[in-house]
Amino acid sequence: MTDVAASAASPAAAPVGADAAPRRIAVLAGGVGGARFALGLREAAPDADVAIVANVGDDVWLAGVKVCPDLDSLLYALAGVGDTERGWGRAGESERVAAELTAYGVGWPWFTLGDLDLGTHLARTAMLRDGATLTEATARLSARWPLGARLLPVTDDEVPTHVVTDEGVLHFEEWWVRTRAQLPAHRFVQHGVERARITAEARAAIADADVVLVAPSNPVVSIGTILGVPGVRDALATTAAPVVGVSPIIGGRAVRGMAAACLAAIDVAPDALAVGLHHGARSAGGVLDGWLVADEDADAVPALEAAGIRAAAAPLWLTPGGPAAQVARDALALAARIR
Amino acid sequence: MTDVAASAASPAAAPVGADAAPRRIAVLAGGVGGARFALGLREAAPDADVAIVANVGDDVWLAGVKVCPDLDSLLYALAGVGDTERGWGRAGESERVAAELTAYGVGWPWFTLGDLDLGTHLARTAMLRDGATLTEATARLSARWPLGARLLPVTDDEVPTHVVTDEGVLHFEEWWVRTRAQLPAHRFVQHGVERARITAEARAAIADADVVLVAPSNPVVSIGTILGVPGVRDALATTAAPVVGVSPIIGGRAVRGMAAACLAAIDVAPDALAVGLHHGARSAGGVLDGWLVADEDADAVPALEAAGIRAAAAPLWLTPGGPAAQVARDALALAARIR
């Protein structure tokens, strides 16, 4: 980590790395970016109890089965069964069932439903229909592999993200996958969010954590939708742990996905500074104590610090098999300066 | 057809084959035996409008998807995509999804859920969850292929057959597939039947038919459960068409499936005469005008006729690719003698 922030260090800053390694880490995460970060974190803090509080805004019922794209991306990545080339879904996938659905005129030509992936959806759906909560179903699915982390949906309630466009209101997955986020989004709506609640498990994971990390996931439709669930901001405001985020924007470009299109809808510039300020300093009613930006964005550090967000710059490219562990170490080091 | 019944012909008997071929034929049918008979009937009466009123007592929800074994056996057979060697399911089947379910600890080791078959279940389930009736969903699934027959579930209501055994009450499919009907059945219960109704489509098919045929399906858990649906016996009693059944028992042996175990539970001997008398003469409050038995059972004909059921003997082995068309012709010929 390039300690750009040292020049602006506040008197309360602890020496980097001086603290004991955190025992309990909570991570707010979306799918693909969250999964890569989680893999790095597992490597960086192998002895920690890691709880991943995952976005469920992308969840969708397709043909009567519940699909949870972000939970599945996290599950498959941590289980080592994900398709690392494609970046999503299972390795060695086939689509025999989906071809049948298409032949019957059912299904979504724009949505790839792999057979192995469908096994996960069907197993989850069976559990839900038997009365399990999504948290319980996720724990049972997770028990198949030694994941090295607990997967916790942020809420057991259904909070599908809807996208308001000129062509009407679409489910997030249709907008994201079918239109490749090319159809301008005017607004994102968390359908039913007023009746949703953070789960007791997710709240406890945040409350009991030594460090809370915000993965470099989409700041609007992953992190933003997690933060939108009633109880999450309160949990973050009251935890004793420092809250440190990793910027998903590097040099003005969204690293993964189509974050720029999402940020445009909420009038936030697609750069590391603007996103950090959008999340805001915890001391000023926001959610961040710290914000790790890319080396390319080191010049954002002073403005972030001025806004009350401890900041540092580091290499942030999370390529598969790449230096994700170092990104996690740098995020933990920044947190250690805040604790 | 060996016209064994000629010696006992009633004065009302019409000459065999003298009538015009029936334009509209309704068939009461279960799965595998029903499917083979339906294939023969399609060949025997290629110009007829054939409506197959199918058993739904075996239907089961597995992992949140609706499985309709008898409708699917009929669909696949008529579509020419069934596995004729195995006798059920799709040809060229695989079980990738089922293996995933098992790995997650979900599913039924005793129930084979093929990938292609699952496509049908999922498509159907999606339609049902969108508000379609089972009749509508079946029509939409059927539209994929030129079946040459309409598939009509006898009811749109859920009437699962439960089996009372010493080990408790099992769903029919669990008893049938897992225990291979080896666990003695004390009783069959049509769960929810008091609230069920024959569909308007099935009732009209029976009312408007020129001939009603009862396929050589299991007389208890296929034909019996169809007859148990409120409205079916009334439709059969009031139709102007003759009702002719084909015995599923040949020489004291159930041709397919495990009919003997089912007949034992209702105290009916596993022979063609006893099953015919169990269904009973329509003129005496039963359902049959005619009953086609196997050549091996020709000696049952006089007793059937004495009971008011016109009877004849013919070769009845419905081997795949075998003389099913001739069985259908013989059943139609017997019906022609009654009309």
Automatic annotation (TrEMBL), chains A, B:
Keyword RNA-binding in record: no
Superkingdom of the source species: Bacteria
One example GO MF annotation: transferase activity
InterPro entries: CofD, CofD-like_dom_sf, FbiA/CofD
Alphabetically ordered keywords of this record: Magnesium, Transferase
NCBIfam families for the chain: F420_cofD
Protein name: 2-phospho-L-lactate transferase
Source species of the chain: Agrococcus terreus
